[in-house]
C-alpha cells in the first residue's frame, strides 16, 4: 500500500521536463513544493521502517529520543543550566553514546575545558572509574585492567575535538564546514555559547552580539543540514526560587534569553534538585542522584521532561532504567578475571 502511494506521489509530483527546477533551487534557495514532497515522504517511510519513531540522530537516551524523535537536521538546540548542573557532563555522556556506542561522527567545540580534561572525563565515563582516581593515577589492579580493556572503544570512536582557547564565530563556522566535508560529521556541539567572541565588535551590547551568534549558528545548521547543539549559562534568578522548585530553570532564566529563545528550535534545561539540598519530591520519592532534563521549547514537537541518573564520581549521566539494572548486577569490574585485555599497555608498579 505504501509502495503504490509512493509511485502515485512520484508520478504527480514530477516537474516539467521543460523547466530545470533543481538548478534554481540550488542557486537561490527557491523550491517548488512538488520537488520537496517525494523526499519528505521518503523520510516518513524510513522512520516507519525503523519502528522506533526516531527520524533524526539518536541521543543515546531512549526516553529523550521519544520526545524529540532524535536531533533533527537543520535545527539549533540550546541546553541551559546553572554552574554545577552538569551541562558538559551531559554533552560528554551523549557524545559517548553517539560516537562510542553507535559510531555516529560528531564534533565538539570546547571553549572551556581543554582536550586532556575531556579525554579523562570520557575515559571515566566509558571505563566507569572515578575521575579523581584517573587524575591522580591511584587505580586498583582491576581498574588498570578495566582501563586497558575499555580504552579501545574510545580509540575507535569518530569523535573530533576543537579546544581552541579563543574562537571567533567566523572561525568556528569555517571549522564546522571543514569537519562535515572531511570527516562526515553528523552533529556539532558548542560548549558554551557565551565564550564565543568577534575580533571586531558587532555592537556595544552583549545582547546584540549574542543575537548575531545564535542567528549565524542557526543559518549554519541549515546550511550544513545537521543538528547544532549549544550549551548556555543561566542567570542567577533561579537561585532566588524556594521550596521544591528551588533552582528549577525556565525560559526567562537564559542569560541574554531573547537571543537564544527566539532563534533556537529547541531549548532544554538540566536541573539537579540534590544540588539545592532537595532530596525528596512531592510524592516522597528519593531524588539523590536524580537529574531532570526538561524540554521547555520545541518548535516542531511537544514539551516534556525526563529523568536521568547522574553519577558524580564519573561525571556521567545514565538512563534511570540502566542504573536500576546496574544496581542489581553488583560486580567489582566490567571484565571477568579470565578475560585477557586486547592491549598490553605497560601498567605502573606503583599502585600495586
Reconstruct the topology from this structure:
Elements: H1 2-13, H2 21-28, H3 33-50, H4 62-68, E1 76-81, H5 87-101, E2 106-110, H6 115-127, H7 131-136, H8 141-155, E3 159-162, H9 169-183, E4 187-191, H10 206-224, E5 228-233, H11 257-263, E6 266-271, E7 290-298, E8 304-311, E9 316-319, H12 320-328
Parallel strand pairs: 1-5, 1-6, 2-3, 2-4, 4-5
Antiparallel strand pairs: 6-7, 7-8, 8-9
Helix pairs in contact: 1-3, 5-6, 6-8, 9-10, 10-11
Molecular structure report:
By secondary structure, the protein is of the alpha/beta class. It has twelve helices and nine strands. It has a nine-stranded mixed sheet with strand order 3-2-4-5-1-6-7-8-9, with helices on both faces. Helix 10 (206-224) links the parallel strand 4 (187-191) and strand 5 (228-233). Helix 1 runs antiparallel to helix 3, helix 5 packs across helix 6 and helix 9 (169-183) runs parallel beside helix 10 (206-224). The protein is globular. Mean pLDDT is 81; it is low at 12-27 and 326-352.
Largest sheet: 9 strands, mixed
Number of helices: 12
Identify the overall geometry: globular
- The arrangement of helices and strands along the chain is HHHHEHEHHHEHEHEHEEEEH
Mean pLDDT: 81
Got a strand count?
9
Amino acid at each position: 500500500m505504501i509502495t503504490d502511494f509512493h509511485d502515485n506521489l512520484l508520478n504527480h509530483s514530477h516537474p516539467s521536463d521543460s523547466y530545470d527546477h533543481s538548478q534554481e533551487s540550488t542557486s537561490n534557495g527557491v523550491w517548488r513544493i512538488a520537488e520537496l514532497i517525494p523526499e519528505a515522504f521518503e523520510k516518513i517511510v524510513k522512520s516507519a521502517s525503523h519502528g522506533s519513531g526516531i527520524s533524526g540522530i539518536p541521543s543515546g537516551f531512549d526516553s529523550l529520543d521519544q520526545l524529540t524523535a532524535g536531533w533533527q537536521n537543520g535545527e539549533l538546540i540550546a541546553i541551559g543550566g546553572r554552574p554545577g548542573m552538569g551541562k558538559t557532563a551531559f554533552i560528554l555522556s551523549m557524545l559517548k553514546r553517539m560516537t562510542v556506542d553507535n559510531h555516529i561522527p560528531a564534533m565538539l567545540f570546547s571553549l572551556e575545558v581543554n582536550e586532556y580534561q575531556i579525554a579523562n572525563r570520557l575515559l571515566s565515563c566509558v571505563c566507569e572509574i572515578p575521575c579523581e582516581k584517573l587524575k591522580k593515577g591511584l587505580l586498583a589492579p582491576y581498574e588498570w585492567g578495566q582501563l586497558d580493556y575499555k580504552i579501545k572503544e574510545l580509540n575507535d570512536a569518530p569523535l573530533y575535538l576543537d579546544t581552541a582557547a579563543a574562537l571567533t564565530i567566523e572561525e568556528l563556522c569555517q571549522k564546522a564546514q571543514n569537519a562535515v566535508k572531511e570527516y562526515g560529521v553528523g552533529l556539532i556541539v558548542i560548549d558554551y555559547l557565551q565564550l564565543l567572541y568577534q575580533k571586531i565588535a558587532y555592537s556595544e551590547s552583549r545582547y546584540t552580539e549574542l543575537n548575531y551568534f545564535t542567528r549565524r549558528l542557526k543559518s549554519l545548521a541549515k546550511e550544513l543540514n545537521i543538528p547544532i547543539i549549544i550549551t548556555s549559562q543561566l542567570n542567577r534568578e533561579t537561585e532566588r526560587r524556594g521550596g521544591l522548585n528551588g533552582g528549577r530553570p525556565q525560559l526567562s532564566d537564559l542569560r541574554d534569553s531573547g537571543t537564544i529563545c527566539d532563534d533556537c528550535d529547541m531549548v532544554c534545561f538540566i536541573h539537579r534538585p540534590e544540588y539545592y539540598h532537595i532530596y525528596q519530591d512531592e510524592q516522597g520519592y528519593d531524588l539523590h542522584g536524580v537529574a531532570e532534563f526538561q524540554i521547555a521549547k520545541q518548535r516542531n514537537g511537544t514539551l516534556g521532561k525526563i529523568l536521568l541518573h547522574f553519577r558524580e564520581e564519573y561525571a556521567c549521566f545514565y538512563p534511570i532504567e540502566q542504573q536500576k539494572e546496574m544496581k542489581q548486577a553488583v560486580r567489582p569490574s566490567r571484565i571477568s578475571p579470565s578475560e585477557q585485555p586486547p592491549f598490553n599497555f605497560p601498567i605502573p608498579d606503583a599502585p600495586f
